[in-house]
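hi support,

uploading two proteins for the ticket. first:
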Amino acid sequence: MDAHAANLLGALAVGLEDAVRDALVREVGLDVTAVAALLVIRERPGRSIADLAAALGVTHSGAVRTLDRLLDHGLADRAAGADGRSRGVVLTPTGRAAADRALAARRDVLAGLLAAIPEAHLGALVPAVEALLAQLPASRHDAWRICRTCEHDVCRGPQCPVGSAVDPADTGDRRPAPRARR
């Protein structure tokens, strides 16, 4: 293992996360979880709170609290769910505009960083990043969480290395089940 390469990759992950988080929060004026929820709902309108929790990597009650913040700001609303018996979540026009601004801010930050890379290096960067991303998800929920702030209109279907790495029928979480108390 190349410890230096691993260290660089770790620092890049933290730096990118910080830069994107700061841009999202600054643009929308909400915490990063609420902005991520806006983006998830934008991509998957009508999904349940359980799906929102899975995409955000939070508990059901955490997703409810996040949704409450969006409702309080007039950014989201409850609607009929996918099966007609459940309730889903959709964006209001104001929420859609906020999500679009957040995506534009994210794109600007990342494009600014990529602009500093010589064109010859970009040809090697894209396949390397795709290979790394394909190693991350173990389930569809993992893919949703990894791509929760992505611009899905740019990277969809077979073009998405994260979504392509998991079985499309797999919506389960592969984390180990909690141990029973004795």
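and the second one:
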Amino acid sequence: MKFDLKQAEQVLRATPTTVRAMLDGLDDAWTSSETSGEEAWEPYDVVGHLIHGERTDWIPRAKIILEQGSIPTFEPFDRFAQFENSRGKVLSELLSEFESLRRQNLATLAAWGLTDEQLRLKGIHPELGEVDLAQLLATWVVHDLTHIRQIAVVTAGKYRDEVGPWREYLSILK
């Protein structure tokens, strides 16, 4: 499937609602754990990570590409900033923050009225090298879907030992 901005926006618009539907109102036992950290992201951590991306990744990097400065290079993205940034916040607060930031970012994206020519403009990722705006926006979509999957896998894993012999039939637990 070729990148299509309108189709991409559908997923980007749905993600906050999907994440809230999956997590809002669940006990902390489902969403956070004493073992959270860089190696084991719980749903709480994932929402914090999505917030950090809204603040520092997708739209800020798209602006760098669109401005086409002398060397449109992105700042490195701290994939673990959520552990500090989310400290002391409750999940419902993070979900609301994510929804608000995503609305703002989608409004910015829509206001740009991007053309096919603009979608081909290049930026420089600090690790991956040259990328174009369409690739950045497609990655935003897939990043959302990756973390929705991650939330489902981690949450299902809480009952890994409780399902008994049915584990063999539950691909999410493999």
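thanks. also noticed: The chain has a mean pLDDT of 92.
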